[in-house]
Each structure stands twice: as C-alpha cells, then as structure tokens.
Amino acid sequence: MKKSTPFSHIKFSCCTLLCCLVAFPTSNANEVKNKLQASIDRDAEESIEIAQTIWDLAELGYQEFESSKLLQQKAKEAGFTVETAVADIPTAFVASYGSGQPIIGILGEFDALPGLSQKVSQHREAHIKGGAGHACGHNLFAAGSWAAAKAIKEQIANGTLSGTIRFYGTPAEEGGAGKVYMARSGVFDDVDVMLHWHPAGFNDASPRSTNANKGAKFRFHGIPAHAALSPEKGRSALDAVEAMNFMANLMREHVPESSRIHYVITQGGEAPNVVPEFAEVFYYIRHPDFKTVQELFDRLVLTAQAAAMGTETKMDFEVINGSYNILPNTTLSQITYNNLVEVGGVTYNADEQKFAEELYTTLYKPDAKLGSQEQIRPFVPSAGRASSDVGDVSWQVPTAGLTTACLIPGSYLHTWQAVAAGGSSIAHKGMLNASKVLAMTAAELMQNPDLIAAAREEWEADRGEDFKYVPLLGDRDPPLDYRK
To answer: Per its UniProt record, what PANTHER family does this chain match (predicted)?
Structure first.
C-alpha cells in the first residue's frame, strides 16, 4: 500500500466535501446556525466572566482546581452529565449532553504559564509579582469552547439537533501532556469528530500539522566536596550536565533540519565553593514526525549516559511529556473554514484600537499589521513548529481546529503582551467568534453524517492500515507535581 501523508488526500476530500455541501443546502441548516450565533451572543456576558475568572486565577498545569471546578459547575447547571477526575487527573473532566451518534467533542484548556503575570496594560506590569499568567490564552480556550458546547446542547434539548455533545476539560497542555494521558485512558475512543481552537493574532482554519515533542528531565548525582580544599574528592553533577549539553549541541549537526532541541538547566548546585552533588537539565526534542522524535530522544539518552560515565556520576531521567504531531483533516478543516468566513474577523472600537496601537509598539519585529485581525487568512495547508497534546487526540479521532484574533496582530504567544491582550475586550471578541465557528461546525456535522464519513475515510487513509497508538511518554503516571 502506498504510504499516505497528512495532505495526500486533499483533492479527494475537497471533492467529497463539495458533493456533500451540494447535497445539503437546506434552509434549516442556516436557521440552526443563526440560532447558535444568537445563543452565543445572548450568553456572551457569562462567557466573558468565565474567561476573566480563569484569567485572574492563572493556575498552572495540574493545579487548575478552581478553573476546573468553575467549568464543571457551569456544565452541571446547564444539564450536562459530568465525569470527574478522568485518566487519574484531578482537574480533568468530561461533560456530556444528549444521546446516540454522532458524538462531537470540543476540547477546552485552562492552564497558565509560570512567571508571566501581567496586567491588562500596554506596559510590562506584573499582576502578581512572580505569578503565572495566561500567555497562551487558555482562559479563552476554556470559556469559548464551553460556550459552543452549551449552544449545541440547547439545540439538542429542543429537538433541532440529535446526537451527543461533549466538552472535554483538558489540563496541563503546557508541558504536562494532559490530553495524552486522557487519550491513553480511552476517553476519546468513541468520539466521531473532535473540534478545538486556539487564540492567536489572526483568523485561520486551514489544515495545519505541528511538531511532535518529547521532554524529559535528566538528573545527575555526584559527590560533594570543598571546591578549594579538596576538589579531587568531589565528582560534579554540574560537570555532567555541561558535558551532556556539549554533546547534545554537537548532535545538532547530525539531525534532520526540521528538528528542534532545547533545554534549560533547572538545578546546577547551591554554592560555587561546593562541588555540586545534584544537577538537573530539562530537554525537549521536536520534529514533524513522532517516530523521528523517539529516535532523536534515544540518541539524547546516549549523551546523558556518556556524560555520567565521563564525570563518574550517576544519571537517571524522567520523561515528563510526549505528544504526537497533529494529523490534519482537510475535510473537517474546509467545513470549519467556511464557517469562519461566515462569522468573519474582529473589528476594534476606538478604545480597543488605541490599546492595540500602544501595545503594538512594544512588539519585537511584528510580522503582521494592525487591521489584519478583520481578515480571514486563505485556506492553505501548512506545518507549524510548535507542539500540542492535541496531536495525540488527532491520531485517535478525526480532528480540526481554528484560530481567531484574540491577540493583536503581530504578537506572539508565551509573552506578556499575550497576557495583556488575553484579559481585554479584544480577546473576548475573538473568543466569541471561535465559539460561533465551533458550534456551527458541530451542528453541520450533526446534520450531515456523510461529512463525518468523508472525514473518517481521509483520516483512516492518512493514519495507515498498520497504525497502532503508542504514547511517546510510555506508561508513566501523569506528572501532577511537574509545576510545583
């Protein structure tokens, strides 16, 4: 059988999609979409309040107890059945409404990033000194996805739509791989289609892959000694870390060009006059193909073993995270894209324009201009360099996502500017647009089972007949304390 690639079925999928769209141009479909948008607009104040509460909480991965509790409470109040602590993760949950097929899932994230606390300001001002911040917009991700799920629930309740809608509360995307543990536990196994979105500085719903990723902490154990009086008695764990880093940097010359290797020394000793007894370095390996990531990781382990041998120290390592590259689905992406075009971009009022202009001046080499938040990017398949635990979900369920302009154009995630914008009305407008697109796409799929069948046919061909899901992080338990 000819090996397929993530984009090898674009022609087939688009043709199939076109036929399906021609077959179902009902006025009822448009009426349902109008009702969904109206419902999301009606509940906009509540959705914004949820987003702002989670923005204020700024809880780190696997510690999002209040954020998760809030979302679960809202789901229960809306009549959803909520399964808690799924996959042995206290803050993970599944909220379901309806019965039977199709089962449409919508992902929601809610973890923040350490050290990026920021006020809604055009200047660098920590909201809480040394605190965390939603620099990846997961406060919006959670609230926006929930709003879409709730809107679909209303249409199931009144008999307009049939099937099951699920809202997945997924913790610790930022390096904790929450969705991978959920995927491994089987919570996505019966889902027909999974939808997700992410805040950005632009509007796009093109099929997009990502890098696969595997991360681990390498720990070295040496012998302490007085660094001046008796250095010969010591064996430096920090020397081992530095030796490993040196060899890993040499390895960069002999890896595929699309690879990424990066690290931070998390512990390097306590005092210069004490030979370090313990040192730790945290590595990430990335590549567009998950199999190559594993191969590179195995080579990285060899550098750690060699460093320990050469410095007469002992080494152990702990795999912290590992995620597949996202498997894009052109059939689903085209449906999502059409709905994004229908909803449109983000328009600023005078105050928002002033805020955006001032914040824009703080950006380093912005790659987009103000005003582009009103536009929808062309439908062009692409490959991103970041990683996401959505990747593992996409290899278990046909999956599609989108981005909306919640940040100002030209800005980047994981920055203080992203936190500032993410707590502003600019972000709320982008979030509500995402809610509408997700709800409209879910409804379209519920009304047209042939679209789901076409998406699954493409997905099965791209995975290949022999695919077997084996998590990159192995059988370890969720690292619930990785942010402590």
So the answer is: PEPTIDASE M20, XAA-ARG DIPEPTIDASE
